[in-house]
Structures are given as C-alpha cells and as structure tokens.
Amino acid sequence: MRSPLLFLLFLLTFLGCRLPSHAQDFYFGATLSPSISHGELKKDAGTLILPSLGIDVLYQVPETPIFIGSALSYGQYGTKLTIDHEIIDGVEQSWRIRRNNNFVTLSGIVRVMPALPGIVRPFIEGQLGGLHTYTRSKVREDRFSEPYSEGTEFYDWAEFWQFGAGMVLTPKSWGRLSLELRMDYLHSAITEYLTSKDTSYDSEGAYYFHPRRSPFELLRPGVAVRILLD
Fold it and tell me: Residue 111: which pLDDT band, with cuts at 50, 70 and 90?
C-alpha cells in the first residue's frame, strides 16, 4: 500500500520545487466532510454516509509552495437503538442500548499549494496515517438518564493513504480567514468493522457481533475554514 503514496509524495515534492513560492505560513483548518463509501467498502457494506469533522495544521517549507503538517478527524458510520429487558437478571425493566459505529484518522500531510495571482490557490495533497474503527454502546433506562453502563465493544486499526486536490479562496476582505473546497480519495488496509446491521440477539437477550472485513474506501468531499497563523 505504501508504494502509491511514496510515489505521490515524490511527485508532490518534485512539482513543488518548480512552482511559485510564497512567504512561509502556518495554517490551522477545520474540515467538514460527508464521506461516501466506495469500492470494496460499498460492495461489502452497501452505501454508507460517514459524516466527519477534522482539524489540521499546515506549515509552509520556507521559500517553497510545499506544506507539511498533520490531521486528525472523527466521524460516525451508523447508529442503532435497541430495547432489552434482560440487562439485570430477575428485574423486569426496559433498557435502551445505543450503539454507535465510529472512526478516527490520524495522518501526516504533504501539500503543494503555489501562490498565484488572484484569490484562488489550487493545491494537490497526499496523506499517510492510521485509521481506527470502533463500536461503543451506552445502556440507559431512558433517553435522559445517566448511562447504566458504557464502553467500547469492538475495534480495529489499519493504515491508510489519501490523495486529493482542491482550492483555497483567499479574498483580501476576509483578512486571515480563507475557505477551502476539496475532494479526496481514502484507501485503507483490510480492517474489521461493524455496521448498524451487524448485531443480532437471541431469545434470552444475548447479543452477537458479525463483523465485516474489507478495506475502507471513501470519497471525501469537504469544506474547510482556515486561519492564517504566523
């Protein structure tokens, strides 16, 4: 899996050394992305919408259009509510079990973003990092009560790479703020995960997990708000 991204990072660096540069900057960004399942993930789990929120920090290598940094994002890919009467033996009471399927990514970034005339700065970007999928549950008596129990029930880790492109809009009237529009493709190693359909129950209330196994493949359109730091 590393070879496509290593080639990408080499290509970004090669192109970056030959594009117009800009004064060195730090950028902090917050990105909202309604990711969509693709490829093997879509084949295995069907169409999934995976809303996520991410933050990142980028540093411009002095006198070049090359930015390096790191990114962290969190999202969900399904939730399910079930009612169970067998949480406490001998007690006839209804309990709400809410299971959320989550994912977290942590990655390093290489971006090429030349300074061009006007308010638009196009870029291409590569990322390499780790993806963590996990399912957590909370058991409550009702919607507003404190959890009777909660915890992580299923999880896995996988490495991933991501490639994308987009543009940053920087009107002078916005000062240090800018708006970023982007599209990315994410591909991970094979990982085990649950969807909202992958838990079953027997007549006594015991539950069973039926994990799926495939790469995470996502199309990730995104909108980001950035602030220039120096």
Answer: very high
Asked if residue 221 has pLDDT above 90, the reply is yes
C-alpha–C-alpha distance, residues 191 and 99, integer Å? 19
**3-state DSSP assignment of residue 230:** coil
Report if pTM > 0.85: no
Bridge-based pairing state of the strands 207-209 and 120-140: unpaired
CA-closest candidate to residue 12, choices 55, 61, 46: 61
Give ∠ CA 110-1-121 in degrees, rounded to 5.
Answer: 25
Phi, psi of 129 (to 5 degrees): -175, -155
Cβ-in-10-Å burial (0-12, 13-18, 19+) of 67 comes to buried
Tell me which of 4 and 202 has the higher pLDDT. 202
